From TrEMBL, chain A:
Domain (2Fe-2S ferredoxin-type) ranges: 2-78
UniProt GO molecular function: 2 iron, 2 sulfur cluster binding; metal ion binding; oxidoreductase activity
Species, as recorded: Sphaerisporangium melleum
Name listed for the protein in its UniProt record: Carbon-monoxide dehydrogenase small subunit
InterPro entries referenced in this protein's UniProt entry, alphabetically: 2Fe-2S-bd, 2Fe-2S-bd_dom_sf, 2Fe-2S_ferredoxin-like_sf, 2Fe-2S_ferredoxin-type, Beta-grasp_dom_sf, Diverse_Oxidoreductases
From TrEMBL, chain B:
Name assigned to this protein: Carbon-monoxide dehydrogenase medium subunit
PROSITE patterns reported in the protein's UniProt record: FAD_PCMH
Domain (FAD-binding PCMH-type) ranges: 1-177
Pfam family, one: CO_deh_flav_C
Length: 163, 323
């Protein structure tokens, strides 16, 4: 067993873990963060994408011990109280989900993309989400949602600056 | 899927890592980003007794511009490689191939040294290492040794790294002026492994008032055309001396010029517009010589040989197209 300290969505946890425990299992089974689903289990689908120290990772391909001392942001940490994150709202408004299974990973991957490229082209969005699979929507609405989310986020940023 | 149990150590220096590996014996594995190893553990295709985590060792991370080469620390992530101005300026082929590795989330964790030490012939970087004659700096309890890329990849997932040895850094030689580069990869889905890939570095002289553009030297290496990355030496030899007629514009200019069967490389001189491209196509015909490509769901060996020829031609065209 190993003792680790991980901050998840702003709360710091100390856990005793087996070295083989995957980060996604720590999140779901130990911390109850079931907003992050497990899809393919082979690093293909991206459903389990979370931010680890500010960059996107597939949490099925990271050991919990590797996250020791790190800061994790999951889909559950995006909203501020009742107020959804602009990307969450945009996915809702653009019908960017049907079954919703890929959505947490899509949103976290999109968040990572917008970190580097706050105003991405459709091509950049498709490229940025290449590690995330959706089997319902055919991606067009997802691309639209990311674009809309990006616009809202840059508008919010401008609003903040203008204050 | 849950991996089989193992012990985990996170040493605080390379020296400690090397001694931890030595203590742990043959069943120990080095863990860096884990993007190749963790899927293997989850699928229970690997059963290490101990994982020695070198992913956070500062001395294994970073990119330095040194005399004659670029030094890339083994635990430098693909993402860090892609963000490095040194890599883009001094070894752009590394950046071109790294940009095609998996997807952004995997590139945040996966490391340059890890994907080389993993020795997967379907990985993109081994072929680049062989094409550029990279040098591998290897640490063990008995000290440091340097292994040439051509001696590093021994077989499928098997490298020259012995038990107790850690890949610490890789030296990427600077090639100097006049080189063009391309990595051409064929894969069925965005983040999939290469069905076949081709890494090409070509030195072209002349052009822009300096006489006809002419291939002086070419280096071509193939991804997933055998249990190890392969240098396409016959292609390299056939490219030397090819004159690139007129204004090369990549695919668009790559029209056959009517050189019939058997015309071979003789067509490269004075054969009119597109002649150089036709000669590059002729040179690419040898790309599959001496290879032993695998058969799997994505293609038969014969299909891969065909791909090797076509992709080599494309890679050479792109590498010889003026920026």
């Amino acid at each position: 067993m190993a003792r680790i300290t991980v901050t998840v969505d702003g709360v710091t946890y100390e856990e005793e873990v087996e070295p083989r425990l995957l980060l996604v299992h720590l999140l779901r089974d130990r911390l109850g963060k079931t907003g992050t689903p497990i899809g393919c289990d082979t690093s293909n689908c991206g459903a389990c994408t979370v931010m680890l120290d500010g960059t996107s990772v597939k949490s099925c391909s990271v050991l919990a011990v590797q996250a020791d001392g790190c800061d994790v942001l999951t889909i559950e940490g995006l909203a501020e109280g009742d107020r959804w994150h602009p990307l969450q709202r945009a996915f809702h408004e653009e019908h960017a989900l049907q079954c919703g299974y890929c959505t947490p990973g899509m949103i976290m991957a999109a968040l990572d993309l917008l970190r580097d490229d706050p105003d991405p082209s459709d091509e950049a969005i498709r490229h940025g989400l290449e590690g995330n699979l959706c089997r319902c929507t055919g991606y067009s609405n997802i691309v639209r949602a990311v674009r809309r989310g990006a616009q809202t986020m840059s508008g919010d940023a401008e609003a903040v600056r203008g204050r | 899927m849950i991996p089989a149990p193992f012990d985990y150590v996170r040493p605080s220096s390379l020296e400690e890592a090397v001694s931890a590996l030595a203590d742990a014996g043959e069943d120990a594995k080095v863990l860096s980003g884990g993007q190749s190893l963790l899927p293997l553990l989850r699928l229970r295709l690997a059963y290490p007794s101990v994982l020695v985590d070198i992913g956070r060792l500062p001395e294994l991370r970073g990119i330095r511009d040194e005399d004659g080469h670029v030094l890339i620390g083994a635990a430098t992530t693909h993402d860090e490689v892609l963000r490095s101005p040194i890599v883009h300026a001094e070894c752009p082929l590394v950046a071109l191939a790294t940009a095609t590795v998996a997807d952004p989330a995997v590139r945040h964790r996966g490391t340059f040294g890890g994907s080389l030490a993993h020795g997967d012939p379907a990985g993109d970087l081994p072929a680049v290492a062989v094409a550029l004659d990279m040098e591998f700096v290897v640490h063990s309890p008995s000290g440091e040794r340097v292994v040439a890329a051509r001696d590093f990849f021994l077989d499928y997932l098997e490298t020259a790294l012995g038990p107790g040895e850690v890949l610490a850094a890789v030296r990427v030689p600077k090639l100097g002026e006049g080189w063009g580069f391309h990595y051409e990869k064929f894969h069925r889905t965005a983040q999939a492994w290469a069905t076949v890939g081709v890494a090409a570095a070509v030195r072209v002289s002349g052009g822009a008032g300096g006489g006809p553009r002419r291939v002086e030297e070419a280096r071509v290496a193939l991804t997933n055309m055998g249990p190890t990355p392969v240098r396409a030496t016959q292609v390299e030899a056939a490219c030397a001396g090819v004159e690139l007629n007129g204004s090369a514009t990549g695919y668009a200019a790559a029209t056959p010029n009517g050189a019939g069967p058997g015309a071979g490389l003789d067509t490269r001189n004075g054969c009119g517009p597109g002649g150089g491209h036709s000669a590059l196509r002729e040179a690419s015909a040898a790309a599959a010589e001496g290879t032993s490509p695998p058969a799997d769901l994505h293609g038969s060996p014969e299909y891969r040989r065909h791909l090797a020829r076509v992709l080599t031609h494309r890679a050479l065209l792109s590498a010889t197209t003026p920026a």
